[in-house]
Every structure is written in C-alpha cells, then in structure tokens.
Design brief:
Elements lengths: L2 H4 L3 H8 L5 H9 L2 H15 L15 H22 L3 H7 L12 H14 L2 H12 L5 E4 L15 E5 L4 E5 L7 E2 L10 E10 L2 E11 L12 E5 L12 E5 L2 E4 L9 E2 L5 E2 L9 H31 L18 H36 L6 H29 L11 H9 L8 H20 L24 H28 L4 H7 L1 H26 L4 H21 L1 H7 L4 H19 L2 H6 L5 H4 L10 H9 L11 H12 L3
Parallel strand pairs: 1-5, 2-5
Antiparallel strand pairs: 2-3, 3-9, 4-8, 5-6, 7-8, 10-11
Helix pairs in contact: 3-4, 7-8, 9-10, 9-11, 9-12, 10-11, 10-16, 10-17, 10-19, 11-12, 11-13, 11-16, 13-16, 14-15, 14-16, 14-17, 14-18, 16-17, 17-19
Length: about 650
Amino acid sequence: MSTSERFCVSDLKKERAKCDFDLEELTNLMDGGKEMTELRRQCAQKFLNDPAFTDEIPQDYLSHEDRYGNELRKACHTVRKMHKEGITIRQMAAHGPRGLTLDGNPLMLHLGMFYDAIGGHGNKEQREKWLPLAENADIIGTYAQTEMGHGTFLRGLETTATYDKSTQEFLIHSPTLTATKWWPGGLGKTANFTVLMAQLYIDGKCLGPHPFLVQIRDLETHQSLPGIIVGEIGPRAGLNGNDNGFLRFEHHRIPRTNMLMKHSQVLEDGTYVKPPHAKLSYGTMVITRVSLVYHAAFQLRQAVTIATRYSAVRRQSELVPGEPEPQIFDYQTQQHKIIPQIASVFALLLAAQNCGKTYVSAMSNIQEGDMELLPELHALSSGLKAIGGKDASEGVEICRLACGGHGYIASSNLPRIYGNTTCIITYEGENTVLLLQVARYLIKSFRAGRTGTPLQKSVAYLSPKSTAGEVNLKNAGLVEAYKRSVSAMVAETEGRLRRLCDSGLNYHHAWNRCSVSLVKCAEAHNRYYICDQFVKNVESLKTSLGVRNILKDLCRLYLIYHITLEEGMFLKAGVLSPSDIKVLEEEMTELLGRLRHQAVNIVDSFDIDDKLLHSTIGAWDGNVYQRLYDEAMKSPLNKTDVPKAYEKYLKPLINAKL
C-alpha cells in the first residue's frame, strides 16, 4: 500500500471500492491507447519528481515580476530537460505533463505557434534554417498577429511590410497606435524573434496580410533592436506568467528572405507570386484551434476532478433530520452540477479526435490540389473551438461554485483554472465571430442543398434529399431530433435573411439583422455534431462491459442534459413533445444517481497527478482540511502575529478616538 493510499480519507476509500469498471482501460481510452498512456506516464515521471518544479514560496504571494521570473525559471528548466532526455517539441506537446507551470508558460508560444508557423508557412530552405534554431532554443520566438485595434478581423491589420527593391528588404512599420501588436504570449520580455503578420505592400499596392520572421531583440544583450518598441501589457485575469506583450515598429528593416514563402513569394525584383489557393496557409490555424479543444477539455478535467473528490469528502447539513451530515454528493443538485461536466470532458475529446482525422484527410487532399474539404474543416474547427471554450469555461465555473467557499480560495486551484480556461473564448478567433463564420457555412450549404449540390458530411442533413431517421427517445432518435431542430432553425433564419434582402436591404445589413439567430444556428449545429460523434464513438468502441456501460451512461446523460437546457428549440420544431421532455428529465435523475457512485473512479481515470492538479481540496487522498490549513500557514502575513500595517494604519485609527 502506498503512502497516499494509507492516508486516504475513508469516504474516498469507500467511493473507490464501488468501482465496477476497468479504470486503467478508461484511462487508455482517453489517452488514445495503452501505448499512449505509457508514453505520457514515462514523460511525466521525468518531470514530476524534479524539485526544480517545486515553488518555495506559493505563486500567489509573489510580485508580478517575481511570478513571471519563477514561471520562466521552470519553463527554461523544462526545455533543458527535454534536450537532456531527448524529447522533441512534438513529443512534449503530445505526451508532456500539463501544469508544470501554474500561471502560464512564457515559452508556450515559442514551443507552439512560433515553431508551427515556421513549419507551416516557411519554405524548405527556411524550415531547414530556422526550425533547428527554435528546437534548440538558440532563438526564442512568439507569434504576433493581434493588434490593439484589430484581432479576429485579419484583413483589418494595420502593421505594414513595404518591399524596398533597392535593398531587397522589407520596412516593417506601425503607422498608428492601434497598429501596436498586443497580446502575444512571451512577447513582453521573453522572445527575441517573432513570426509577424503584416500587410504586404509592393509598389504602393496592398497584397494582404503575410507572415514575416522578425528579430526584435539582440541575441547577446537581449536589448530591443533599433526601430522596435516592445514591452509587457500588464496583469490579466489569468496566465500572468506568460508576459503577454506589445510591439511597435518604426520603419524597421528585415531581409527579403525573412518573409515566410511556402505559399506566396516576393522575388528580388519585387514580383509577387501568389499562392495557388488563397486558403492554402489555413492549416496552421486549424490545428491550433483543434488543440484548443483538447486544452479546454483538460482544464475542465482538472476542475471536475477537484469538485468530484471534494463533493465526496465534504459533509454538510441534514438530508434527513437527526441523521449524520451526508456527503454533499448525495444531494441531487450537486450531482446535476458536476456529473454533466464529466460527460462533457468525454464529448469534447471525442469530437476533437474526429475533427483531427478530418484535418489529416483535408491536408492530404490539399497537397494534391484538392481544396474541397477546406470549408468543412474551417467550420468544424471554428465551431468546436467556440463551443469547447464556452463549455469548459462554464463547466469550470460550475465546479468552482459547487465547492462553496473553499472553491473561492486560491489554493483550491479552481480560480486559476477558470482564468486559464476562459481566455480560450477570446483568442485564436473570438467565439461570436467564429460562430458567425460557421453560420455562413450553414446558410451557404442550405442554399446549395436546395439546388441539388452534394453537401459535406457534417451538413448533409441540410439537404432536402437527406435521409430522415425516426425521432424517438433512443440515442439515435435524439440525435435525429437535434438534426431536425437545427435544420428547421437554419431554414427559418435563411428565410428571414432572404426576405430582408428581397425587401431591398443590403445583404450585409440583412446578415447583421439576423446575427443573433445565426449564432444560435451555429451553436445548435455544433452541439448536434458533438452529440452525433459521442453516440457514434460509444457505439463503435470495442471495450469491456464495465467501461461500455459507463460510456453509455455518460453519453446518454450528455444528450438529455443539453436537450433539457435547450428544450424550447425542440418544442418549437415540433420534434419533441412536452411529455417527451418530462420522460427525459425523469431519466436524467436516474442517470445522475447511477453515475454518482462511479464518479470518483471516473475522475481517477483522468490520471492527473496531485503535483499537476495543485489543489488543496482535490488531492487524491482527500485530506482537504489539513491541506487547507497547511497552505494557509504559508501566507507571509502569518510570519508574524502583528503585521506592520497595524502600527502604520490600524493603531492610529484606534487611538484617534473618533
């Protein structure tokens, strides 16, 4: 028996004794196979037992500068350790432990978007030159796209890159204050290079935004280069170890060869060679958005692990007068808060996996000049990023609130998890903007279907020729109910849009007049897609009976939970009746009761080490109160009985005899 098992609280021991499925099998399933689980654990053990990742002073008591410095220390140690152990950036992204740094990683964009942008936008020569430098940390980079005045609207970026034929250089310039690059992680004080998105100008003509590799700091002194103003933007709601920065240029020159030229080129004489397809460079953004769905699911996984274990340990009030205080997990209201969030973790992961497969197929087709899957891929990745960020953010907050006052304290780690999750809603495409892009795809597909044009798989249901299944209260029937409800919603919105245009309203203004309904269409379509993938995966997976039963119950709960949240949509479309909703609500209470007894074991299968969970109330052993007390004693205010502020402020007030 391990030390943690020996000191585990009795309530959690009893919960774990109820396990009626193969916990390790479920862990393997979430990791993508037994081999992947082993790779993840092997990689994690190289880091988790390293004392360099232990904070001598809890992060919350550090100054803003010291907090950044502490996270940078751990980030740099991680990179050195990766090289020592022979772990590549790709392997670390796939198998490395999440949570080694608490408040973000100053090298996160270097290890992610900077590396991927060079790989995705650079030609063979550029990749061979720059990728080894990035891999070996000879240069440290970030990705600068968002500006103070423009984010998601890429065509509105103001930073310019003007080609000078006489010197074969680009002049990088920020013509306005709003052209200031704003937000990139690692830009403030860490990076010495950036992949920069700027408007390309040749002979006075704007050719749109293009990527450029720009050095911003001296490689020896780390001083910002002439013509460059760079700094940090200040504290945020979360990720305050990331040194998010700002960047301005004053006619800064870079060589022509620093334009990343895999897809489009500028020749020495200023000739512009456009890409064979305008959307050819979209792959980097797609895979980033898919990775954000995985990130969102991981954040929710952490929060629901904490909330589930705490709910099994915390006892409060009297369920039956005169009897001992029950575990708060015995209250149905608590089950209704937490267990659907467990189901959401699986739903998001399975949908992201399927989108990843679509990405692989699309990229393979694109290499052969076939762009047919690109709109589908764009809509899927945009929609999943939007709904994944929203579901995870709301789910983390539900978990935090479910833990009462102890969920509010920083040492629970729930406030930090929320801050590290809700940012997903905004970056890499603001959710509302992405949902409107999904809606554009839906309207276009709906209209194409009316002309007999074959539609892509995810929107095939919008064709009048699509085969309709039976609506009933089985899983397939509920997915069909989703399909018909979304189809009715899209048809109604498209009709309204068409009528506005027929009345003489400009199409763009008509679109804006319908935008609330369009966003609802996109959200409903995304939910349908996730439900459909959840059902198909659960039915096709070959697992043991115990794991299959758990997945079936979680899938069923996910379907019913979201139908009850949006029951008006189904009632309005006439695909479900009030009595159907009533039956489903009653079934949901049964599912909650059944899954409540397996919930601790399910979150245990997430296999998150306490050193990565960083929670006083969610640790594996359940020693909530001792951990809370021990952590409180680390507060600098508890180093002395009487604080300095007493003599300076409080004592004079007391003696003032007001």
